[in-house]
Structure formats: structure tokens, C-alpha cells
Amino acid sequence: MTLVSAGYRAVRRTSELVSISECVAEVHDDWFRDLALARQTGLDVLEVGFVPDEAEPIVREIIADGWTRETSAVVGRIEEGASTSGELLGFELVGYDGGLWHTWRCLDGLVDDVRAATGVVSGRHGLIESEDAAHQAARWLTESGLGDPKVFDWAAAALYVP
């Protein structure tokens, strides 16, 4: 599947878990359009990619919160259709909620629910290794409604080291 870049996220990576979610990892408050600026934070930098179909409802939510292409790196980069690049670490199931990015790991029991329903499990760094499995799990989570009331639309975020 073709992925578009949502920009760069500055995070503190550990050997056990890599995440773009504030719920389970230390992350910089902002997303970055520019790799050089993201690197100036002193944190590890990840480029985040989404397939357009999964990104669309998240972009709508960000815009509904008052952000625009000019004020949101995520909206701007996705609408530009910029390609992703770098070393792919894997996929994280994420959703947006009023300015916060949640992961399937921060909402009680979702990892177990996904495994029971789809057979999808995480591997190295807590990420899903198969792109197809990640999208299957994201679709199932969205359809299940189990992220309610925080997350309604889930996406498989591809995490790259640029």
C-alpha cells in the first residue's frame, strides 16, 4: 500500500517499546514538518506514515479541533502527499482524540482484544511487523468500537527511522 508522511515525531525510544503516543512514551509536544527541526529536540526522531484511507478520518478530527493545513504538521504533510522514507521499524495502531495520540497499548485490554479477534500480535519494539496484519487490526478496532469514547478511528502508523 502507498503510504504518505504525516511528518516527524520526536520520542524517547526504548528497546522494549517504540510509540508515538503520549500515553506510553516520552514524546515532544509538537509534530514536525522538517526533519532537521525534529532532530534539534535531542530526542529520537521517527517519521510516521499512513495509508490515505486510514488517515482521512483522523485528518477530519484534527481539522474539527480547529487545526488547518498551515497550523498542523500532520494535516499539511498528509495533504501534500509526501512519501515516507527510512528504515521501517513496524506498525503501531493509533488514533487521535482531542490533541492526544492514543495507542492500542494505552486503552485497557485492546492488545488482547485484537489478538483474540484477529490473531494479530506485536513483535520487536511492541510493533506489528506485517503491514497487512496491521491494517487488518486497525480496521477491526475501528469497526469494533472498543476505543470509544476516546478513539473512534484507528490507523496503522508506519514508524520509520529517517
Task: Write a brief caption for the model.
This protein has helices at 35-39, 52-64, 73-80, 110-118, 131-144; strands at residues 4-11, 27-32, 44-50, 87-97, 100-103, 155-161.
Q: How would you explain this protein's 3D organization?
A:
The chain has one domain. Helix 4 crosses helix 5. The longest helix has 14 residues. Strand 4 and strand 5 form a beta hairpin. The chain is built from five helices and six strands, in the order E-E-H-E-H-H-E-E-H-H-E. It is of the alpha+beta class and 162 residues long. A six-stranded antiparallel β-sheet has the order 2-1-3-6-4-5. The chain is 30% helix and 27% strand.
Please supply descriptive tags for the structure shown above:
162 residues, alpha+beta, six-stranded antiparallel beta sheet, 6 strands, globular
**Average of pLDDT:** 95
Low-confidence stretches: none
Q: Provide the β-strand percentage band.
A: 25-35%
Order of helices and strands: EEHEHHEEHHE
Give the end-to-end Cα distance, rounded to a whole number of Å.
19 Å
Q: Quick one: biggest sheet?
A: 6 strands, antiparallel
